[in-house]
Write a structure and sequence with these properties.
The chain is of the alpha+beta class and about 180 residues long. The chain has a domain of about 120 residues: Arc Repressor Mutant, subunit A (Orthogonal Bundle), CATH 1.10.10.2910. The protein contains seven helices and four strands. Strands 1-3-2-4 form a four-stranded mixed beta sheet, covered by helices on one side. Strand 2 and strand 3 form a beta hairpin. Helix 1 crosses helix 4, helix 2 packs parallel to helix 3 and helix 3 packs across helix 4. The mean pLDDT is about 90. The structure holds zinc ion. Zinc ion binds next to helix 3, strand 4 and helix 4.
Length: about 180
């Protein structure tokens, strides 16, 4: 399941559909638990976002409690992506995530670990900002140069960072400003 042909957005949508989640903000902690994961919040070094590992066959997701709650939500969604898409690669390793530097690079140009991170980020964006819901919200707002309000509104509605909103808008292809 770790190949480059994986479609992270489709995998995220499957999880949402399976749980009947169709409104924002997406209950990402509930989703993680429904995937069988235990969540552990603890203060970590600032450069660490989170981690995932298996203990006695059960996934444990660690989250940096020092980070902004919206960032914690992205971390949880990212680790859920690993759980759903890279389950076979998680045994016997602690997968640690630092900053997410490769954010949305093209999957085709990446290999190995980097590919896993890109896929997990795409999964996280699609899980927290599902295309249909997000499009609805975007089309109900009017965007204007120099006006941050619509971005802030989307970030608040979906409980994600402003940066995540901008990336999502771009990746969904409506960059209308
Ligand atoms: Zn990762």
């Amino acid at each position: 399941m770790s190949g480059s042909r994986l479609d992270p957005a489709a995998e995220a949508q499957k999880v949402l559909d399976g749980m009947g989640v169709d409104s924002a903000p997406i209950p990402v902690e509930r989703i993680a638990r429904s995937l069988g994961a235990q969540l552990r919040f603890s203060p970590l070094d600032d450069e660490l976002s989170g981690m995932i590992f298996m203990r006695d066959g059960a996934p444990i997701i660690g989250v940096n409690a020092v980070h902004h709650p919206n960032r914690q939500r992205f971390t949880i969604a990212h680790e859920c992506g690993h759980l759903v898409m890279h389950h076979d690669r998680l045994s016997n390793v602690v997968h640690v995530d630092k900053q997410f530097p490769v954010l949305m690079r093209d999957q085709r140009s990446a290999t190995g670990t980097e590919l896993m991170e890109i896929q997990a980020n795409k999964f996280a964006a699609a899980l927290l900002m599902p295309a249909r819901l997000f499009d609805q919200e975007v089309s109900s707002l009017s965007f204007d140069i120099d006006d941050d309000a619509p971005f802030e509104e989307l970030a608040k509605k979906f409980k994600v960072s402003r940066q995540a909103v901008e990336l999502r808008i771009r990746s969904l292809g409506h960059w209308m400003i």
